Amino acid sequence: MKAIIIGSGLGGLLSAARLSKEGYEVEIFERLPIVGGRFTNIPYKGFHLSTGALHMIPHGPAGPLAQLLEYVDADVEIVRRKPIAVIRVPRKKGDTDYKYGHKDLLFENFRVPFSLWNRIKLMYYVISTRKKPPTGQSFEQWCRDHIPQDWTYRISDAFFGWSLSLKAADVPVEEAFEIIENLYRFGGPGIPIGGCKGITDALVDVIRSRGGTIHTSSEVTALKMDNGKVSGVIVNEEEHDADIVLSDIGHPATADLIDEKADIEGMDDYIRKTDKIKPSAGIKICLSSDKPLIGHGGVLLTPYAKRVNGINEVTNIDPNLAPEGKHLTMAHQCVHWNDIDDIEKEIDLGLEDLKDIFAGKEYEVLLIQSYSNGWPVNRSPSGADLRNRTPVPNLYIVGDGAKGKGGIEVEGIALGVKNCIQDILNL
Ligand SMILES: Cc1cc2nc3c(=O)[nH]c(=O)nc-3n(C[C@H](O)[C@H](O)[C@H](O)COP(=O)(O)OP(=O)(O)OC[C@H]3O[C@@H](n4cnc5c(N)ncnc54)[C@H](O)[C@@H]3O)c2cc1C
Fold it and tell me: Can you give the pTM of this predicted structure?
């Protein structure tokens, strides 16, 4: 059996590695001259910046991605150290900014700023919702109905802004509860040694060692169809045949590659659904400093900042991601869909936040990257993912346009790939 994979992002590489382990012949077509999509490194002034991700694996060495990497025999190391996250809060109760100084709360103490009554309610909801999680509203609305307090909205916006690049108002409550459950199940984040490229390079090695092929600078311009089924892809006007095609470019872009849409049952409904997908957007600001700005390998969540949701300093775990004697710190902020056209203003607000957060510390802004539309933070906002199947027989979607339930970012990609391959092997 032969599988063609469109795109060499993490979703495409994981799928190829997994299928090659089952004996499939795999061939990947990537339109860019590099492999890894939004999960590889960009060398810049001796630093290893990235095409997308913050060099962070949401559930570290125990999560779904780490498990899948181990299963496909990828040689990677993901390091998790304490603290996994801290939360920066103003020192004086009631302050809404940092000008009176700040303190960092350990993530496990996130309950401390709640009122006593809300802490009691939280304990009750933690237990009572485990068997039957709530559904049918946004996480923010659920919080407003059950634990109304400024702190609730701030910490949930910072957490979901950092982890999903979404505001809590845009996260379905069922997805939020599944994510929280997964945090208990798999634990907090870790940093891959070598950054994102440490992982994508290891997958390339696995694929090549099992005879798979990866073509770069090779854009798939159309799907080859045969009696309403996909039978391959077209690249540079040449046809390439396959038994199955997996696409790592999301549902809408994949649908655009199908010429004979009218002949396919269920296509109208599918197109209506893909048209509704709004990729999540964000801004990443990369900083260089001589002295550590954070001083640990976990996340610094910043619920009192104007825009920045969280920051990490990956060189506290892998010093090789920066030149000797330097640190690499990256700040992330969610950009709401209403603000995408005002990206310069959003960047300025993020830079102002960093001045406040790191007041009195010296740093240089290395690079500012913004992500939306065709190169977003997530092709599908978490909780709104369509699943892996398409109405076209033998055509599947993988990657962050078809994440598994409750999977933050690349953990969702790993869960989606696992579901997809299971589906293919069961056929
Ligand atoms: C700012 C930012 C921070 C993030 N931080 C983290 C983090 O710390 N941890 C985390 O887990 N996740 C993070 N993410 C998310 C993570 O980077 C993505 O979810 C993941 O990299 C997406 O992988 P993918 O395989 O789905 O898609 P992609 O990486 O986009 O891969 C798709 C590939 O397909 C190629 N392609 C497109 N069209 C065609 C075509 N027609 N023919 C051939 N090739 C084509 C593209 O060039 C691309 O290489 C972050 C993302 C951003 C933007």
Answer: 0.97
Please report which helix (H) or strand (E) contains residue 300, including its range: strand 299-301
pLDDT one digit per residue (tens) for the chain, 427 residues:
999 999 999 999 999 999 999 999 999 999 999 999 999 999 999 999 999 999 999 999 999 999 999 999 999 999 999 999 999 998 876 666 666 688 999 999 999 999 999 999 999 998 888 888 899 999 999 999 999 999 999 999 999 999 999 999 999 999 999 999 999 999 999 999 999 999 999 999 999 999 999 999 999 999 999 988 999 999 999 999 999 999 999 999 999 999 988 788 999 999 999 999 999 999 999 999 999 999 999 999 999 999 999 999 999 999 999 999 999 999 999 999 999 999 999 999 999 999 999 999 999 999 999 999 999 999 999 999 999 999 999 999 999 999 999 999 999 999 999 999 999 998 6
Ligand 1 atom nearest 378 alpha carbon: 19
Residue from 380, 409, 413 to probe ligand 1 pocket by mutation (most atoms less than 8 Å from CB): 409
Domain 2-79+194-277+381-426: which CATH number of 3.40.50.800, 3.10.150.10, 3.50.50.60, 3.40.50.2300: 3.50.50.60
Distance 94 CA to ligand 1 centre (A): 40
What are the residue ranges spanned by the domains of the chain?
Answer: 2-79+194-277+381-426, 109-186, 278-371
Per-residue exposure over 283-309, b if at least 16 CB sit within 10 Å of its own CB, e if not: bbbbbbbeeebbebbbbbbbbbbebbb
CA 100 / ligand 1 centre spacing (Å) = 40
Residue closest by Cα to atom 4 of ligand 1? 53
Chain-centre distance for alpha carbon 401: 10
**Cis? peptide before 61, omega within 30° of 0:** no
Domains 109-186 and 278-371 alike in fold: yes
Residue pair 134/142 in contact (Cβ under 8 Å)? The answer is: yes
CATH of 278-371, one of 2.60.40.1510, 3.40.630.30, 3.40.50.880, 3.90.660.50: 3.90.660.50
CA 341 – CA 338 distance, rounded (Å): 7
Residue 295 C-alpha to ligand 1 middle, in angstroms?
Answer: 28
